[in-house]
Amino acid sequence: MSWWVILALAAGVSGQRLAGMFWAGPFLTRRPALARLGDLLPMAVIAGVIAQLCFASSSTSTGLTVDARAVGLAVAGVAVWRRAPLIVVVVAAAAATALVRAVG
Amino acid sequence: MSHPAVEPAPTEPGWSDYGTLAFTYFAVGVTVSVAMIDAGISVGTTLIAALVVYSATSELAFLAVRAAEGSALIGILSGWLVASRFGLLAISLGTRFGGSRPHRAAASINSFDPNVALAMHQPEPNRLRTVFWKVTAALMVGWWVGSIVGVALGNVIGDGAAWGLDAVFPATLLAIIGSALRARDGLTAALAGGAICLMLVPVAPAGAPILASALGAAVAVTLSRNRGPGMSSTPMGRRS
């Protein structure tokens, strides 16, 4: 990973963040019909990240898999639904995932 | 499970929450550092990339492309594409963050999933900014300690998956959006976003499915509008 790769990655990542804050965010705010999108974007995007992390075969291949990660997510879902503290959600999900892998 | 139109008053993270968030980013930092060192990248470059690129998923995406014999250019484009979610999160933050231009610039550069989602739960602007920076501080402590431990010790814990460490980040994300899932619009946005992502993972290049999942927010807004203004809910607990 050479220095120009690092700089190129940094420019693209930072540029998107700054554009969101200074251009697209205010653009939504000026349009009442779109303003609510701003509140709901994190829910939709984070759900996408969760889906990718738990069901994609790997970060590069293009396939879906249901494995121990899905069990961990389900356990996390129950814990969140029961309003468990974050630390309980995380420990329960990791333990369930590890347990399924140890058994399976 | 019923979904009230308005979720309960937002609560702020407590000390154990900040500690767990730090641990989550510690795990992410270790993972990225170990992957970089495994790919033959020097300790110095690994730490500089952690500071300058500032996106674990972009670093991992670049490494994945290079490991698959892809060109550096494709690796960079892939890194940009997976970082598009931070741009989307910065959009969300940009609708309500306020503050001076330098303050907003600093906040946007620090946009990650947990700090944006937890900050946007806060209806009041000052609390929104305070929660954003407190969560950011917790994430940074975890990220830096994790990055340094990762390069210093290498892969000492062996396969993190055996410990279920790969379940830590998704579980944290689910808990973070948990309270918004109790409101109908938040649940709709999340289910639609997750479904769109899953449909695209088998056919689209890495990063594109998560970018497309943003459309889940548009689905929720459209459905909410069709129910009529009287039924619209305020999933983020915003009070006017």
Tell me what you see in this structure.
The complex is a heterodimer of chains A (104) and B (240). Chain A is mostly helical and 104 residues long. Chain A has a domain at 1-30. In chain A, 80% of the residues lie in helices and 0% in strands. Chain A has 4 helices and no strands. Chain A has helices at residues 3-29, 32-55, 68-81, 86-103. In chain A, helix 3 runs antiparallel to helix 4 (86-103). Chain A starts with a helix and ends with a helix. The model of chain A has no long low-confidence stretch (mean pLDDT 91). Chain B is mostly helical. Chain B has 2 domains: 15-178, no CATH class; 180-240, no CATH class. Helix content of chain B is 68%, strand content 0%. Chain B is built from 12 helices and no strands. Chain B is globular, with a radius of gyration of 19 Å. The two termini of chain B are 27 Å apart. Chains A and B meet through helix 1, helix 2, helix 3 and helix 4 of A and helix 1, helix 2, helix 3, helix 4 and helix 5 of B.
Report the mean per-residue pLDDT of chain A as an integer. 91
Q: H/E order of the elements of chain B?
A: HHHHHHHHHHHH
- Assess the beta-strand content of chain B as a share of residues: under 5%
Query: How many beta-strand segments of chain B?
Result: 0
Helix coverage percent of chain B: 55-70%
- Cα distance, first to last residue of chain A? 37 Å
**Secondary-structure element pattern of chain A, one letter each:** HHHH
Structural class of chain A: mainly alpha
Annotation field: number of helices of chain A: 4
Oligomeric organization of the protein chains: heterodimer
Global shape of chain B: globular
- Beta content of chain A comes to under 5%
Biggest β-sheet of chain B: count, sense, barrel? none
Determine the number of helices of chain B (DSSP H or I, runs of at least 4 residues).
12
> What is the radius of gyration of chain B?
19 Å
Count of strand segments of chain A: 0
Alpha-carbon Rg of chain A, integer: 19 Å
**Largest interface, counted by CB within 8 Å of the partner chain's CB:** A-B, 77 and 113 residues
